[in-house]
Amino acid sequence: MLKLSAVSLQLGTQTVLHNISFSQQHDEFIGIIGPNGAGKSSLLRLIQRELAPDSGNIMLRQRALARYSNLELAKSLAVVSQTAPPLFSLTVEQVATMGLLPHKSWFELSNSHDKHQVALALQQVGLLHKASQLTDTLSGGELQRLYIARALVQQPALLLLDEPTNHLDVQYQHQILQLTRSLAIPVLACLHDLNLAAMYCDKILLLNKGRQCAFGAPAEVLRPDMLQEVFGLPCEVNMQSRLRKLQVTFMPEPVC
Amino acid sequence: MLKKHYALAMLLAVLLLLFSMLLSLNVGSATLSVSDIVKVLSGQVPQSALAETIIWQIRLPRLLCAVLVGAGLAISGAILQNASRNPLADPYLFGLMAGAGLGATLVSVVLPPQMVSMALGAFCGALFAVALVFMVCAGQNWRRIEITLLAGVAVSFMLSAISSFILYFAEPFAANRVIFWLMGSLSPVNWHSVLLLAPVTLLVLLLALALRRQLDALLLSDDSARTLGVNTQRLRLVLLLATALLTACIVSQCGGIAFVGLMIPHIVRHFFGVTSVRLLLGCAVVGALFMIWVDNLARTVLPQQEIPLGVITSLAGSIFFLLIMRRQRL
């Protein structure tokens, strides 16, 4: 699906990413974690082709990323990031319909199949009943689900999520990640919260200062010694007995 | 905005436009009977011999120009506002008007009389202003539309200063001609104006309709449009150039008619919707409707005299805007 080999990126004189290599299989949910400035967003921007790597190469569906046209890329890759609500009052349906763009030529109208696709996507994220409402009336969680619906209408082979749960209440954080896991599309997500990553990711990529510290199943990556080195705080990693998921607890020393 | 509402609003606006067009043929200094107007339009011989000339040579081209100018300015405003996500964008923002003013000034004051028409001078001046703005902004890749707006303001002041300098030393008659021309009027238009404005307006409208999905995608954010495969910089450049060309054509034919491109899209958004197809078609019809009635007003308010169109649109537009701002619905 997605394969990065020895990818490096420099911005100005600073090395933002150094020698990143990992690959993603068809059914995997991969989380990218690391402290601020670790290069998580830059890595996503490379895969979105907003930035170009200085060395190494990125393959998407066995084809070099650089050889995709803009529209081809938009058909293979959808991105959901933290987007502010629209300035003009658009309806939920109008925003979801935007996802048709890469599939349509200049004068092509939306046909019944397209409308079905839009309705289906809205149903998948549970917003079909709000299709004709204005986006100003949606909560933060609903707005994020709407952007996921728009991404689904693109019919991508890979979904990129850039901090999808920021500024959301706990219930919505889980809702968004459960939803994206249930979609049968491989997902690559930047995540801030290590416990969310432990709970929902098949594999985790841990970055620190632009370097790849670890890549693998949560149990291989979320090790106390490694996390303490990267995040600079002592921590404990336990198995939550009922969920059978790892749980990270940082234990900062008292300040006083 | 629901689909039903949109269809109803559109139907109503189109009917109103057709009705207004017929009615406006009867507005003017000469009094014609309705039966004569109908006869002329249907190709029969009217009772008054003058009627045919008045309708075909004066009123019809003027009416069609009002339709095209109103539609063109409103469409340009809508395109620029959506493409820049800035509800205050206006087709005159590239210093077009100041450029046209300088062109008209040079042609009527500096060059020997009748060598170049004022319209051609204004058109070249407007394009010169746009070229200046584009040269300044080419480096920043059209990412930040605010810079384009500011460059337009600066270019405006520069070109206006040059115009004022020339006009200050010009003979009063020529200076008056330029100043009145800048206030905007549909009286100088003829069939040539229609033949110029019709294809340009139609082409820009078709271009914007073809790019409607791209324009809609820009409504959220540039990043979000790019993830849908839109080349935002190129899209913006194409749209800026198209609207600049259309506005330059309009200015060259009828001088400065401000605030139409700013005001009409706001009204249309409210009644028709925000997405491109609704907004563009709505703007075309409502802009035309508005301009027809402004022109009728300009011709009838004072006996034996026309009020410049720009005076009416600026007055109406500025009051409209102050009211919106007071209600904070911008």
TrEMBL record, chain A:
Highest taxon listed in the record's lineage: Bacteria
Keywords from the UniProt entry: ATP-binding, Nucleotide-binding, Transport
GO molecular function terms noted in the UniProt entry: ATP binding; ATP hydrolysis activity
Gene3D superfamilies named in the record: P-loop containing nucleotide triphosphate hydrolases (3.40.50.300)
SMART domains: AAA (SM00382)
PROSITE patterns per record: ABC_TRANSPORTER_2 (PS50893)
Coiled-coil portions: none
Pfam families hit by this protein: ABC_tran (PF00005)
Positions of the ABC transporter domain: 2-234
Protein family (similarity comment): Belongs to the ABC transporter superfamily.
Protein name, per record: ABC transporter ATP-binding protein
From TrEMBL, chain B:
The keyword Ribosomal protein is annotated on this UniProt entry: no
GO molecular function, one term: transmembrane transporter activity
CDD domains the UniProt entry points to: TM_ABC_iron-siderophores_like
One BP annotation, GO: siderophore-iron import into cell
Alphabetical UniProt keywords: Cell membrane, Membrane, Transmembrane, Transmembrane helix, Transport
Topology in membrane: Multi-pass membrane protein
Protein location: Cell membrane
InterPro entries attached to this UniProt entry: ABC_BtuC-like, ABC_transptr_permease_BtuC
Entry keyword annotation includes Transmembrane: yes
GO annotation, cellular component aspect: plasma membrane
Transmembrane segments: 59-80, 92-111, 117-137, 149-170, 190-211, 237-264, 270-294, 306-325
Listed SUPFAM superfamilies: ABC transporter involved in vitamin B12 uptake, BtuC
Main localization (coarse): membrane
Pfam families: FecCD
Family stated for the protein in its record: Belongs to the binding-protein-dependent transport system permease family. FecCD subfamily.
PANTHER family: FERRIC ENTEROBACTIN TRANSPORT SYSTEM PERMEASE PROTEIN, PERMEASE OF ABC TRANSPORTER-RELATED
Protein name, per record: Iron ABC transporter permease
Species assigned in the record: Rheinheimera lutimaris
